[in-house]
# Entry
Amino acid sequence: MQKVIIIRYAEIHLKGNNRGWFEKVFAVNIEKSLKGLKHELRRQSGRYLVENFNEADTQTILGRLKKVFGVHSYSLALKVNSNIDEIAEASKKVCSAYGTFKVETHRADKTFPLNSMQLSAEIGGRLLDANSNIKVDVHNPDFIVSIDLRENGTALVFNENLKGAGGMPVGTSGTGMLLISGGIDSPVAGHMIAKRGMNINCIHFHSYPYTNLQAREKVIELTKRLSEYTCGTNLNIVSVTRIQEEIHKNCNPDYMVTLLRRFMMRIAEKVAITSGAQCLITGESLAQVASQTVEGMTSSNSVVEKLPVLRPLCGFDKDEIIERSRAIGTYEISIEPYEDCCTVFLPKHPVTRPKLCAVLAEESKLDVSKLVDEAVTGLESLKL
Ligand code: ATP
Ligand code: MG
# Structure
């Protein structure tokens, strides 16, 4: 009797001729997530099986698989030879101690002497004999003992279907550049887009020494957490200190955030294109704060020349974003109280609905392309 993990995928099955490619990327991502843990990954009848792992690593493996996009559901199962006694022993082991149950058999091996109904009834009878605290309820059972008779003379027996991360394998939808702050929203935005199969690289802007080194560490931690879902990521760190000082010195202070946003987008697009990313991703949510009005987005969007800007959180309320942030494990890091560069030189009355012509008038007081080039030149890149 051997412990194995069954991994099921759903949306990949809908793909046509290129399904094999999706499956390959999926398998590579599973392997990456299990790196450092002894195991074998095998494809079997439109699913994957993780086998030959150390029993002590079981929970670690299940925890890592929970973060692999493309996994629809997964189950810890017992693998036995396809004979009734071994199947019954395995069924007793996976069976819960109390409650109502039914047995479901999937019989790919058509040579097995009993049909699905007969085997379910036989195993159900043996489970009842072994434990007087359980009862059969075929309509609304508390748990299901599943038996999967494979063609190769083995059977998989399990009780639980754990919900996977869903989505598509990371790497099947191109690469995006996430503008990551230290806040709650941007990591959630990155996670949502990664879930649809996109590789995520990150860019973070800081205003050291106005912002401190702990703020930087926090973003590194957030990016690492995100990279558990994205099979690794690059973090580009760029200083906008000089840009903010120049805005502060030369422009109407109320335009600080609006102008800074435009610089961020310009720099992010440049770095994205050089590194092969095909879109920008932000954590903006419509009407959340003063700078996230449609006019604010028009202003920051209008400097992005070639790439689309994805804003997956646009339609979410803050509490919905927080809920996701907790679920993906970034919330506790995001709420550490270190300042973002947007809070440096923060105006008392930031413009909320900036008119593009007024923005351009303020911006004309700066040497934009020189400032952008300087910032890009000072870029630091970390592999996480
Ligand atoms: P977040 O929680 O992601 O910080 P927020 O609600 O604080 O978002 P803003 O500060 O207005 O909103 O930022 C909007 C978006 O702009 C962020 O989600 C992020 O994508 C980008 N952004 C803001 N500050 C930075 C930064 N320092 N570096 C990189 N991107 C940033
Ligand atoms: Mg922020």
In short: The first helix runs from residue 19 to 33. The mean pLDDT is 95. Residues 2-163 form a domain with the VC0802-like fold (CATH 3.30.2130.30). The radius of gyration is 27 Å.
